[in-house]
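TASK: fixed-backbone design
INPUT:
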């Protein structure tokens, strides 16, 4: 009787070529329907079907739209949608044979291969040592059903094989009688040596043929591939085996491993390598794709030897033998009657149509629970909301689809009561009778532990409470005691607590990481109406970054967007509101069919139960979590965490936070990071518990203890601590208590200043001054120190008038309060001198600096670091006046003394090297300048960092030396690098940035790019006029250069760019600088970046102001 609907078809036959499908249909005992006229198919299914009967089996024959694994996988997937009852698929057709199998049995054309495993031999990775295939499909994609495995094992017996081949030959005779194309082709069966290729060997009219590509002997032109071996003239001496085509030889059947790939195997050498490595008996292109979706067997006739000597003469005959073998196989195939054991399904959620990603994790889980020697218990752990339940749900549906004998049960584990209720429901489903409710767990455990229970899978979802599982209580025993054990059963736990996962499943634990960007984007796409953010992919990416790519947060956001018909940008705007508003947004409940109804869904509250569990398990861990939520969530130094207990307890506390996936540790650095949304949720939780202010104060007290000063050796540490300190000092709870933490504010400001972050430093310094004026008074030494700091910051921002006004005020007050020879007063004099220098007021600068140096030498001594700084600053003033010899003598003195006193890598020493190199440059001693600059530049990035202002100055000065030598192309590359980095780090209007702009314009003019140079110099001139005024030396330098170039453009053609040889030359043109190289910088050249050395206090002592080495500002021009 014909099936009434598509669900009645249990066997599918899949063919890639029309000739293969024709051979199969020729062996149908009855045809029911063609192309879905009667049975139809599901909407969206693009497959073409023919329905019929072979023996006692109702068959659906499916055509592939093309060859290859991808096509087969797509067709098999659609087949499962329309024909839900299919339990077995036969991939039938033609293939390439392995001439000599591992059993030393020859395989000939027309023989049949039957798969018991599939090797996807192009599925793996290319490593430097060669290609490494992943593993057998048999082990990866699920095993064929037990009955199939048993039948294949039986067919390998000698007598059964002979019987099989005889029956196959009878079917072959029937099909051959129906149509002549299925007859034996009567062509010789020839096997050539593996290394001999089917290609042109004499040029003739094919001079341009790729067959003669000596670089690749396997290149074969399309013309050669279309010709027969006889027409092409293949050398018979290269034949390794031949069989007369007139011999009436019966086709043989071979069972073994089949190689599957997306490309046709047409290399004898590659074929033999695969045969040797994998022991395969044939090569084809569809099996792996089908095997990934349905239990299947590959049955194909051999039409060639998987080399370049392919021939279409054997295809029809091979298709006929393959179809005949498939019909014979079905005569042996008797599927297991489902009535023998009822399969149970107790899962509370429907299949999630929006599920994407997690391929590797699900693949690993499938391997573990389907492998014969795999673990009986498996743990799935990860952050709450990351998608553990959805992974388990997807796996449950996949197992259900692939294994018709496996019963699957789902146990929610929110409480002891929910587990007991689930066990009771399972017992009722299994038909366990005469049971008291209290006996349910023991009875269910006993049932599943018995062999007669068959195959089963238990999923314990949200198994988070470690005490409930491992210790129990006075009223409830530990749940681990009620876990069944059986060779036929498996248990999966999903949990937020990795420590619990390891206790329950040992090493068989899979961590679910954050989603990657592409998968998160697919989740968002599936959760919103079609084309909702078409053309807004960048906006969608920004939204996902705000949501930390967390699946729960994405689904919640999509639900809110859908409900309120809003754009993605509108939701992003909501996420950028004040923290309280963001928490309110992320606390809004939403409907989701894939989550439990009575459990809190929103992101902002989903971890509250975890917080409570951590509080209960480890007070130290709870305290650490609260502290980390008060600072920046990224890259937290472990030294920030107070050592309030033994090292073991500290490690246990941090380990517990890692176990809940709240915290991750950066390999190598030891820095901790708190998940961005957990950070937000923890702050919200602390506010709800009235603990936020208390913990903020603990955090800033801890920062007050551990935040380092800005000395050279602490740079890496302060850079780690800065983001955390900046977040905490900005909290309103701290602003109200600013006087208590004014030293920390000052310390943070110093570190910002030392990193060249002057605008941020200014904000804190203003706060420090206001606080100290209120608390200490305007003339207190600490208040004056703060004012001096701010003046110096203004100087480095290029705000020299403001810096001068504040500097004069500080200097005069210190003279009155502290006296002329006090170190703080000397600091004020030195810094004011440099302010004059930067304004071009060199005589005033020299007078002040000389006064300060004389006092320093007398009070502090000639080798004191502050005295050396004073000498260096006087040298910088001499440089500005063009007094190069005097400046050079002072710089050599300072550099050599600093090397001895401070060391060769100290920032002050590097500054001296840079300044001395600039003097060499101005004296025309460019080779000496380059050597000194290169030495300095090798040290700077390592000591200061690649983007520190001093490092950028070093690069800029080396570029200037290249320019002076006529190496303009090299100079251009460095100057572009420096200019772009300064724009980003210092800002587009910073004096150093304008110096880079000025210099790059000069280099472009030298390269003949006059229009580009004029445009850039005009921009520089406008900004310098705006910032410095028209009479500043830098402004004048840019103005003169711009005027000269504009006049040159109007009077003569633009300069021709240099040739590559000229650009790469190490020789400079004597006309490049002319007589100007010994004079004050002029508009005939770019400007040197001199390293000035103002004096900056350190926060080590509020009572005494110390000097700090200065950042270098040099102006060229």
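OUTPUT:
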């Amino acid at each position: 009787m014909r099936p009434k609907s598509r669900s009645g078809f249990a066997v599918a036959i899949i063919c890639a070529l029309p000739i293969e499908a024709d051979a199969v249909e020729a062996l149908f005992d009855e045809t029911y329907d063609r192309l879905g006229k009667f049975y139809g198919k599901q909407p969206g299914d693009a497959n073409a079907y023919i329905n019929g009967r072979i023996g006692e089996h109702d068959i659906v024959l499916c055509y592939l739209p093309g060859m290859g694994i991808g096509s087969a996988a797509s067709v098999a997937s659609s087949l499962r949608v329309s024909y839900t009852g299919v339990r077995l698929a036969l991939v039938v057709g033609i293939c390439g044979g392995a001439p000599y199998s591992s059993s030393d049995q020859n395989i000939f054309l027309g023989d049949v291969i039957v798969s018991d495993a599939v090797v996807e031999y192009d599925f793996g990775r290319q490593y430097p040592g060669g290609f490494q295939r992943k593993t057998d499909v048999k082990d990866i994609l699920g095993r064929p059903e037990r009955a199939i495995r048993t039948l294949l094992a039986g067919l390998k017996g000698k007598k059964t094989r002979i019987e099989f081949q005889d029956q196959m030959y009878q079917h072959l005779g029937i099909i051959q009688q129906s149509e002549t194309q299925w007859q034996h082709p009567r062509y010789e069966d020839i096997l050539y040596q593996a290394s001999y290729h089917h290609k042109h060997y004499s040029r003739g009219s094919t001079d341009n043929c790729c067959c003669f590509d000596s670089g690749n002997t396997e290149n074969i032109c399309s013309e050669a591939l279309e010709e027969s071996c006889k027409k092409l003239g293949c050398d018979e001496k290269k034949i390794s085996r031949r069989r007369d085509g007139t011999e009436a030889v019966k086709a043989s059947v071979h069972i073994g491993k089949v190689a599957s790939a997306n490309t046709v195997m047409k290399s004898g050498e590659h074929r033999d390598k695969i045969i040797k490595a994998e022991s395969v008996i044939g090569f084809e292109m569809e099996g792996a794709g089908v095997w990934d979706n349905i239990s299947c067997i590959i049955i194909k006739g051999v039409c060639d030897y998987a080399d370049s000597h392919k021939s279409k003469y054997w295809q029809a005959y091979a298709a006929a033998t393959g179809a005949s073998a498939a019909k014979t196989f079905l005569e042996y195939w008797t599927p297991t009657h489902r009535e023998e054991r009822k399969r149970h399904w107790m899962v509370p959620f429907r299949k999630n149509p929006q599920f994407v990603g997690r391929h590797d994790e699900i693949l690993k889980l499938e391997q573990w629970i389907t492998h014969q020697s795999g673990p009986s218990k498996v743990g799935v752990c990860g952050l709450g909301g990351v998608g553990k339940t959805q992974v388990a749900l997807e796996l449950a549906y996949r197992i259900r689809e692939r294994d018709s004998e496996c019963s699957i049960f789902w146990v929610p584990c929110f409480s002891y009561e929910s587990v007991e209720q689930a066990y009771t429901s399972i017992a009722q489903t299994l038909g366990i009778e005469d049971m008291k409710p209290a006996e349910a767990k023991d009875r269910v455990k006993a049932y599943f532990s018995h062999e007669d229970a068959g195959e089963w899978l238990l999923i314990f979802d949200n198994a988070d409470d470690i005490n409930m599982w491992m210790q129990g209580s006075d009223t409830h025993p530990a749940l681990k005691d009620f876990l069944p054990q059986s060779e036929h059963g498996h248990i999966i736990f999903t949990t937020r607590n990795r420590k619990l996962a390891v206790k329950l499943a040992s090493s068989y634990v899979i961590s679910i990481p954050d989603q990657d960007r592409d998968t998160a984007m697919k989740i968002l796409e599936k959760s919103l109406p079609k084309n909702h953010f078409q053309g807004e992919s960048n906006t969608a990416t920004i939204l996902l970054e705000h949501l930390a790519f967390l699946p729960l947060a994405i689904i919640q956001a999509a639900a809110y967007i859908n409900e309120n018909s809003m754009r993605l940008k509108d939701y992003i705007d909501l996420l950028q509101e004040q923290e309280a508003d963001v928490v309110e947004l992320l606390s809004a409940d939403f409907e989701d069919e894939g989550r439990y109804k009575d459990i809190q869904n929103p992101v902002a509250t989903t971890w509250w139960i975890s917080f409570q569990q951590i509080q209960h398990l480890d007070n130290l861990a709870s305290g650490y979590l609260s502290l980390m939520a008060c600072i920046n969530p990224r890259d937290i130094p472990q030294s920030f965490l107070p050592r309030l207990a033994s090292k073991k307890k500290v490690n246990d506390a941090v380990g517990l936070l890692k176990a809940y996936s709240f915290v991750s540790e950066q390999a190598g650095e030891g820095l901790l990071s708190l998940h961005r949304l957990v950070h937000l949720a923890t702050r919200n939780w602390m506010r709800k518990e009235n603990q936020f202010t208390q913990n903020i104060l603990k955090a800033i007290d801890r920062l007050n203890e551990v935040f380092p000063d800005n000395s050279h050796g602490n740079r890496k540490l302060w850079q780690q601590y800065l983001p955390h300190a900046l977040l905490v000092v900005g909290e309103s709870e701290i602003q109200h208590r600013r006087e208590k933490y004014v030293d920390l504010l000052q310390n943070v400001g110093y570190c910002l200043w030392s990193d060249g972050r002057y605008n941020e430093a200014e904000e804190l310094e203003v706060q420090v001054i206001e606080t100290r004026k209120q608390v200490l008074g305007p003339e207190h030494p600490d208040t004056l120190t703060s004012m001096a700091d701010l003046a110096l910051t203004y100087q480095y921002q290029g705000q020299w008038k403001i810096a001068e006004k504040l500097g004069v005020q500080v200097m005069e007050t210190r003279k009155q309060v502290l006296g002329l020879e006090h170190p703080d007063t000397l600091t004020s004099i030195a810094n004011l001198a440099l302010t004059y220098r930067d304004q071009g007021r060199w005589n005033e600068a020299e007078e002040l600096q000389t006064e300060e140096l004389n006092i320093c030498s007398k009070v502090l001594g000639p080798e004191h670091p502050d005295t050396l700084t004073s000498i260096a600053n006087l040298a910088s003033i001499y440089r500005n006046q063009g007094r190069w010899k005097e400046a050079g003598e002072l710089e050599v003195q300072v550099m050599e003394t600093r090397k001895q006193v401070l060391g060769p890598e100290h920032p002050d020493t590097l500054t001296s090297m840079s300044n001395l190199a600039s003097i060499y440059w101005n004296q025309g001693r460019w080779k000496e300048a380059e050597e000194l600059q290169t030495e300095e530049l090798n040290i700077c990035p390592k000591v200061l960092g690649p983007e520190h202002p001093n490092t950028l100055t070093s690069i800029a000065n080396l570029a200037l030396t290249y320019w002076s030598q006529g190496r303009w192309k090299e100079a251009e590359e460095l100057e572009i690098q420096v200019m772009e980095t300064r724009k980003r780090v210092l800002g587009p209007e910073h004096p150093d940035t304008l110096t880079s702009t000025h210099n790059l314009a000069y280099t472009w003019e030298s390269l003949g790019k006059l229009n580009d140079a004029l445009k850039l110099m005009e921009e520089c001139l406008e900004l310098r006029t705006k910032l410095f005024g028209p009479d500043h030396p830098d402004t004048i330098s840019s103005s003169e250069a711009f005027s000269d170039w504009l006049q040159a453009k109007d009077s003569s053609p633009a300069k021709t760019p240099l040739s590559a040889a000229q650009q790469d030359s190490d020789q400079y043109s004597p006309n490049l600088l002319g007589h100007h190289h010994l004079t004050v910088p002029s508009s005939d050249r770019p400007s040197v970046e001199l390293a000035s050395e103002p004096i900056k206090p350190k926060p080590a002592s509020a009572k005494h102001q110390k000097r700090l080495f200065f950042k270098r500002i040099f102006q060229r021009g």
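COMMENT: The longest helix spans residues 158-178.
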